[in-house]
Amino acid sequence: MRPRTLDDYIGQAHLVGDGNILRRMIDSGRVSSFILWGPPGVGKTTLARIIANTTKSAFFTLSAVTSGVKEVREVIEQCKREASGMFSQGRPILFIDEIHRFSKSQQDSLLGAVENGTVTLIGATTENPSFEVIRPLLSRAQVYTLRPLEAPQLQQLLDRAITQDEILSKRKIRVEQTEALFRYAGGDARKLLNILDLLEQSTGHGEEIVINDKVVTERLQENPQAYDKNGEMHYDIISAFIKSVRGSDPDAAVYWLARMIAGGEDPEFIARRMVILASEDIGLANPNAMLVANTTFDIVQKIGMPEGRIPLSQCAIYLATSAKSNSAYMAINDALAEVERSGNLPVPLHLRNAPTSLMKKLGYGNEYKYAHDYPGNFVRQQFRPDEIRDKRFWHPGSNQAETQMSQRQQARWGTEQ
User: Fold this and answer.
1) Interhelix angle for 104-115 vs 69-84, to 10°?
2) What is the pLDDT of residues 153-209, one digit of tens each?
3) What does the DSSP 8-state code read for residue 376?
4) Which of 63, 145, 204, 278 gets the highest tally of CB atoms within 10 A of its CB?
5) With the CA atoms of 93, 94, 99 and 101 taken in that order, what torsion angle do they form, in degrees rounded to the nearest 10?
6) How far is 124 from 143, CA to CA, in rounded Å?
7) What are the residues facing 126 on neighbouring strands?
8) How far apart, in whole angstroms, are the C-alpha atoms of residue 191 and residue 61?
């Protein structure tokens, strides 16, 4: 069922739709190095193969799970020979799946070949490249984000599978409902096809395959690992872990942590999620939470597994039992929304920097009051543009730490803050 042309490719219209960046690149035949970032089953590998086929480029693949520096250098030598061959159509494409699992030295070994044009690198990753890919490589490869497939695209995939798959097309199939099917697929094409495979295998030959919410739910409950264990482990369980910590249940948090560790999840991924969680869900209620989470991330990087499971557990329990607040998270979201709405409002004159005499004559910095010259290191003055002088972004959470902060601000600003 893997598409072979862009016309058959489902989803990612923001990249491959008419006039969009990858479509223009492919149509021109000049493909530069890039990294595809997105969840499993959204077409990263398929898109790389389509690009190679369309541009008639030699296609080489490496898996970061099984390849070392030696294998990288060997395939680069193959690419050099291919590029210098008399029948070469253009630069060979080197596709690296799970590039986020490459070590720094492995990524370093790619730099020369990418820089001098020996290969066009296409990387695929489910992790944020800014965390996992070294800066020199990022500067040589644009990052494009792929999105989970939505219901219309999953419906298109379902229709195609039923009519074109060599097995399903020979079976009698009745589609009554798709809500459960699409929900369990979770925007993942591979997961949806695996569920269809499960339904086909669990329905006797000669019997009609019925697809509805009841049947899909029952079959998947009977076979909980029948559809893409790695995808389920990576997304559903990390979601359960985060929600358990947010919900202040340390036992549930440790259970889901154990499920991830037993399933082979990258411990640095878990630690990084806890750093984000410490700021997003605990925040000002307990600023030490971020220090604990960041320290845990450093420790896991230094000692690895299996010992890393202990600080991960300690951090998970600490975060789960901590007071919670998302006031900082909501404040920056509200402020960004205001920036989007009101644009670049001018900085009040008394807050502007005045490094030249002309700027001083224009009033830059005039009437600014230096807080440390006043009792308590505070003096009332306006710090926001006139248009939003009364706009509030931070709303204190209902916890002891932020109550004290709010009382301190009330004493300073009264009803003006």
Assistant:
1) 10
2) 999 999 999 998 888 988 999 999 999 899 888 888 988 998 999 899 888 888 899
3) G
4) 278
5) 170
6) 10
7) none
8) 23
Place of tokens 């890393």: 308
Q: Position 246: which residue type?
A: R
Distance, in Å, from the CA atom of 231 to the CA atom of 102, rounded to the nearest integer, reads 20
The kind and range of the H/E element at 16 are helix 13-16
Name the amino acid, one letter, at 169: S
Model pLDDT, residue 355: 66
Instruction: For the beta carbon of residue 204, count every other beta carbon within 10 angstroms.
Output: 8
Output the six-digit token pair for 324.
């919670």
Would you say 95 and 76 are in contact if contact means Cβ atoms under 8 Å apart? no
Is the dihedral angle over the CA atoms 159, 163, 164, 169 positive or is it negative?
positive
Distance between CA atoms of 31 and 52, rounded to whole angstroms?
A: 9
Q: Hey, how many other C-beta atoms are within 10 angstroms of the C-beta on 21?
A: 14
CB-based contacts of 206, cutoff 8 Å, min separation 6: none
Is 64's pLDDT higher than 80?
Answer: no
**What pLDDT shows up at residue 243?**
92
pTM score = 0.57
Q: What is the mean pLDDT of residues 218-223?
A: 76
Is there a contact between 245 and 282 (Cβ–Cβ < 8 Å)? Answer: no
Contacts of 371 by beta carbon, 8 Å cutoff, 6+ apart: 377, 378, 379
Q: Report DSSP state, residue 202.
A: T
